[in-house]
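stage 2 :: seqdesign
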């Protein structure tokens, strides 16, 4: 039922500006988190259990929603009802920020792709905390720090990023604050240093910069775990545009600083053989054209990591065959986003059933 409905609605969504369509579908998913719609969605999107253990967590299946769709955590429950094994919200920044000027999202339908230059638009950490724990709204002025997490059928990840105006030399302070704010709520946290749409952010992937960032984050993570009485996995999301030497440095630092996993990859600045009108727009490219580059990075990361930590594969996963190939290549989990735009929410069920 979900697939025929989306085939009918997609042409209508594609007549809208991409960002307008995104906000509309996000609001629909927010409504989908309310009973009885939530119960109906769960029935329609019932998927077989394909449990996966990673980072000390049990995922009900290996298919997750990549960060970027629900930046402020307003539709987590509805999204979880689509059958995802994990939902990653964000990117969240410490302070609210608007992101880059409009227009900043472009569909490339001939290429089954999207180019975005959003620039971490975020309502900020305080707003997202209130979505994660509504009880906090009543006592937020006292800056209470609750120790409860939202109840979802899926694992919850929170993607963290620095504010646009924060200098790279001070970025660790942003990430430390976010780690402290969201440790009580997240099943895992992702350190995003790979978006191409915040000036200078990708320079944090350099060996010395990354070491200076991840070392104190690991130390703070150890402190946060004591009152929480549970592990708090930290993952690092990397770019697909790294050279072999840069990738060697990233993997070495990730392992040296005791990070728990790598998400490979974010969007790309490359423009591999695009046909669409908007092919020359600035920003990060996602969707089918990223498939080859993301798989190439995955193959290299798998080899360099050597099974020491799990890898999450994202980028260019447009159908069951793509997801299965990534898992066969050595990924433990996969994430989708742009594939949902072109295939619809039934993509999750289709992937899980194929595994």
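stage 2 :: out
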């Amino acid at each position: 039922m979900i697939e025929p409905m989306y085939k009918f609605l997609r042409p209508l969504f594609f007549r809208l500006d991409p960002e307008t369509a995104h906000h509309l579908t996000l609001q629909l998913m927010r409504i989908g988190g309310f009973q009885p719609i939530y119960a109906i969605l769960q029935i329609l999107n019932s998927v077989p259990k394909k449990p996966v253990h990673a980072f000390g967590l049990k995922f009900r299946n290996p298919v997750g929603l990549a960060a970027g769709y629900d930046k402020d955590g307003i539709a987590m429950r509805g999204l979880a009802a689509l059958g995802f094994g994990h939902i990653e919200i964000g990117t969240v920044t410490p302070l609210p920020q608007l992101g880059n000027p409009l227009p900043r999202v472009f569909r490339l339908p001939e290429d089954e792709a999207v180019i975005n230059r959003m620039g971490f638009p975020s309502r900020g950490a305080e707003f997202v905390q209130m979505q994660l724990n509504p009880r906090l709204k009543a006592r937020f002025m006292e800056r209470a720090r609750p120790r409860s997490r939202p109840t979802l059928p899926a694992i919850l990840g929170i993607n963290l990023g620095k504010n646009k105006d924060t200098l790279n030399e001070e970025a660790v302070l942003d990430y430390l604050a976010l780690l402290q704010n969201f440790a009580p709520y997240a099943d895992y946290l992702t350190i995003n240093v790979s978006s191409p749409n915040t000036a200078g952010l990708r320079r944090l992937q350099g060996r010395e910069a990354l070491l200076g960032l991840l070392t104190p984050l690991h130390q703070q993570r150890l402190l946060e775990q004591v009152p929480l009485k549970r592990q708090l996995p930290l993952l690092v999301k990397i770019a697909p545009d790294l050279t072999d030497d840069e990738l060697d440095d990233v993997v070495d630092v990730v392992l040296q600083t005791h990070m728990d996993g790598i998400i490979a990859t974010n969007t790309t600045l490359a423009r591999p053989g695009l046909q669409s009108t908007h092919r020359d727009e600035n920003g990060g490219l996602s969707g089918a054209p990223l498939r080859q580059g993301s798989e190439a990075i995955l193959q290299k990361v798998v080899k360099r990591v050597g099974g020491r930590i799990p890898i999450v594969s994202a980028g260019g996963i447009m159908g069951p065959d793509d997801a299965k190939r990534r898992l066969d290549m050595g990924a433990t989990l996969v994430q989708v986003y742009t594939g949902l735009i072109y295939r619809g929410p039934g993509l999750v069920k289709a992937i899980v059933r194929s595994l």
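stage 3 :: structure notes
- Residues 137-147 have pLDDT under 50 and may be disordered.
- The two ends are 21 Å apart (CA to CA).
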